[in-house]
Write a structure and sequence with these properties.
This protein is mostly helical. The chain contains eight helices and four strands.
């Protein structure tokens, strides 16, 4: 038992000695690191090579001469070069970070442009599809007439444009940006001859017929199994009622995409 306690005590003393020795090494390393830091930035390798063959006494004499010369520059900031190196490294890190941020910004802008193009394409395709179906539906409802959807832009409403820019204005009107779209107009003709009419020039029954033509055109772009209408023919005369009934009948009997309509009418 005595030898076991003695062995345990020796083991503890050995561990304590190792810890003290490790702490001493860490302190020596920190001291040497501090001294190296106080020396400042090391000279280039080529300059070190010129003094490699000198003896210690010769190096001490060179050091003494150098220190005497440095005394004449006592008013100069001796840490300026170290600060310059430090700031230059920070500048390099910031420039690298800036490049990464600029690259990320370019990718985000490219994504935004791609999404804008997809959005513009979807809007234009939808309008063209609805416009084409509107022509067909209106022709079915009014065989002797014609109807057209018109996309109005802010360029159409600008009356103060310079006359010297006529060609540029025409080009913009032919290929307008979606951001310039402001409203949709309708031009219709209810007979083979005569002028096209705007919405403000139509009667109540004609406006109702146009509204139904637009609804049927939208439904043909995105069809549903059935539709519910309430007092659909209230403002229509007998001719237009018959045309609407025939259109609904043809859509219900369509083999490709049959659609059914439920008409509610209150007596």
């Amino acid at each position: 038992m005595y030898y076991l306690d003695l062995y345990t005590r020796m083991h503890q003393l050995t561990l304590s000695f190792n810890l003290l020795q490790r702490s001493l090494c860490v302190l020596q390393r920190e001291l040497r690191a501090r001294r190296i830091q106080e020396l400042g930035t090391l000279p280039p390798t080529a300059e070190l090579q010129t003094h490699r063959g000198l003896s210690i006494s010769a190096l001490m004499r060179e050091l003494e001469k150098t220190n005497k010369k440095l005394k004449s520059y006592s008013h100069v900031n001796k840490k300026a070069f170290d600060q310059f190196v430090n700031f230059n490294e920070q500048r390099g890190a910031l420039l690298k970070r800036k490049k990464e941020v600029d690259k990320g910004i370019r990718k985000v802008k490219e994504l935004i442009e791609s999404l804008d193009c997809q959005k513009d394409g979807a809007i234009n395709r939808t309008f063209c599809s609805v416009s084409a179906h509107f022509k067909d539906v209106f022709k079915e409802l009014v065989p002797s007439g014609a109807g057209e959807l018109i996309m109005k832009t802010s360029l159409d409403e600008d009356e103060d444009l310079d006359e010297e820019l006529d060609e540029e204005i025409i080009r913009r009107k032919q290929n307008p940006s979606v951001s310039k779209y402001c409203s949709i107009g309708i031009k219709v003709r209810f007979s083979n001859v005569g002028e096209n009419h705007m919405m403000s020039q139509l009667s109540g029954g004609q406006k109702s017929l146009l509204a139904m033509a637009l609804i049927f055109a939208i439904q043909r772009c995105d069809p549903a199994p059935f539709y519910l209408f309430e007092e659909l023919d209230q403002a229509l005369d007998s001719t237009y009622r018959k045309a609407v009934t025939g259109l609904i009948q043809r859509q219900a009997n369509s083999e490709e995409n049959p659609r059914y309509a439920i008409h509610l009418q209150y007596l």
